[in-house]
Amino acid sequence: MPTWLTNVEPLVRQFGLPGLFADVFLEALGLPLPGETLIIFASGLAALGQLNIYAVALTSFAAAVTGDNVGYLIGRRLGRPLIVRHGSRFGITHERLQKAEILIQKRGPVIVAFARFFVLLRQLNGIAAGTAGMHWLRFLIANAVGAALWVGFWAMLAYHFGKDVSVLPNLWHHLSLIAMIVVPALIVILAIAGVVAWMWSRRSR
Alpha-carbon distance 136 to 121, whole Å? Predict the structure, then answer.
């Protein structure tokens, strides 16, 4: 069995959906855990009939949204100095948090929605939105949309190809590369569409 499966397998095999929820929740909260990897593995088990794919998707979605919203609350209430001071042991450094904040301040909901497809942004998404002062309702909506896209993308593909668990490492590797190309392209397209819509609305006035 591949090393990456050996590392995450006990979380699902021993603890089931609660283990999946805990992993995805804590990753969304800023800890360097393999949430995305575990969703793929759990969806592969669902393809083998050991779990229910809808339960896997719903659990992952709920954990991602809940974790990010707790992170948002921490960022909003505690502020950046305290987070950086205590979060550095988990990789939440001043530089990383600042980069995430700048992206969120410039692009707002678009970055929040697609942040889940990138490891660093996925871990700092909620905290950075909170410290950057993003409105909670805007964050909640964009975050839920992003969670649905992220979970749906990985869960459905892993479920479709996961009847042979040995396929999953290659699936994860290749689709990660595809996501790194496709997601930025989608962000650019959405940004262009937003600018065009804004210009059109101004001309219509």
Answer: 18
Neighbours of 169 (CB within 10 A): 17
Our count of domains for the chain comes to: 1
Q: Tens-digit pLDDT profile for the chain (205 aa)?
A: 445 444 666 778 788 899 999 999 998 887 878 888 889 889 888 988 889 999 999 999 999 999 999 989 988 887 666 666 655 655 666 677 677 767 777 767 777 887 788 777 777 788 888 877 788 888 899 899 989 989 998 898 888 876 665 555 555 555 555 555 555 555 555 556 656 666 666 665 5
Rounded to whole angstroms, how far apart are CA atoms 74 and 29? 9
Query: b/e string for 23-46 if b means 16 or more Cβ within 10 A?
Result: bbbbbbbbbebbbbbbbbbbbbbb
> What residue numbers bound the domain in which 63 lies?
3-204
